[in-house]
Design goal:
Elements: E1 2-9, E2 12-17, E3 20-26, H1 28-31, E4 44-51, E5 54-60, E6 66-70, E7 80-85, E8 89-95, H2 103-116, E9 119-125, H3 135-144, E10 149-151, H4 160-167, E11 171-175, H5 182-189, E12 215-218, E13 224-227, H6 241-244, H7 272-278, H8 284-297
Parallel strand pairs: 3-5, 8-9, 8-11, 9-10, 11-13
Antiparallel strand pairs: 1-2, 1-4, 2-3, 4-5, 6-7, 12-13
Helix pairs in contact: 2-8
The protein binds guanosine-5'-triphosphate, magnesium ion and zinc ion.
Amino acid sequence: MTGRVIRSRGRLFTVLTDGKEYQCEVLGKAKREKGHSPVAIGDLVDFTPVTDGSGGIEMVHPRKTKFSRPRVGEELKGTEQVIVANVDQMVIVVSVRQPELKLHLIDRFMVSAQKGGLKPIVVINKVDLQHKHDLQRITSIYESVGTPIVLASCVDGRGIDELRELLRDHESIFVGHSGTGKSTLLNRLQPGLALRTSEISESTAKGTHTTTSVELFSLDSGGYVVDSPGLKVMRIWDLELDELQTYFPEFEKYLGHCKFSRCSHLHEPECVIRKAVSEGQIFPERFESYERLYHGLK
Ligand SMILES: Nc1nc2c(ncn2[C@@H]2O[C@H](COP(=O)(O)OP(=O)(O)OP(=O)(O)O)[C@@H](O)[C@H]2O)c(=O)[nH]1
Ligand SMILES: [Mg+2]
Ligand SMILES: [Zn+2]
């Protein structure tokens, strides 16, 4: 039988097929697959039922999309951790404050989304709080690269309906640092979901990783959502230096026109990307994110 992995606990994966759930172990064959995590939430799998409600996963279907990162603590050995497979959108949740908004964090997730084949959506949450950001400018930055951006508040309800529309009939994973309000947003989008959320401490203004597991939920308005634990450091799995520039859509029309064919766009003369930045064709904020990511990869 074929089904979809919707959650996991320990070594057991819950596989959903025809509205029925099976608790499955991963059998030897599927375990031995090389080069990626054997089974991830969102995977389509072939399994054999053992008893009513339990079974064994035999095979994982090739993934259409994936959001992955190096397994924590194993960055050097390089093991990939697929956080979710086969969803089509990444909702990048940041907050104006608590924790503080940093554009380069959004851009890092944007790169990861595109690399994995997911369409990014940006949500700036907690706009009810006093803050110092120019939200109009931030909105134009992301609109200029074709990314939908929603200004939201779980306190006064701003942006919630708009976000619900963007999620309708899509499968979306919510990502972002701890405490930005991912679970609160999901609870607001679908009352009854009752995901655990928590107060963030005022003194450190850091979240405490309230969400600890990844699970696929269906939305009454159509589609699926996946909550995810806030990531402290968001490293991008298997990203090459040369590849980075291709995940900045606004660079695209300039690529191949620099004087040097392998221009890093950081210091070489006659670089058309830097020229576009200085002429206001590319937002300096985005270029700065590119620079940061580039240095991080070297
Ligand atoms: N003022 C304000 N507070 C919010 C808003 N959304 C969420 N919060 C608060 O932010 C805190 C963290 O919310 P969570 O939903 O637990 O954050 P999370 O992103 O799921 O965090 P992790 O699960 O740790 O990744 C809670 O105290 C929420 O009440 C908002 O729009 N405005
Ligand atoms: Mg959460
Ligand atoms: Zn260049």
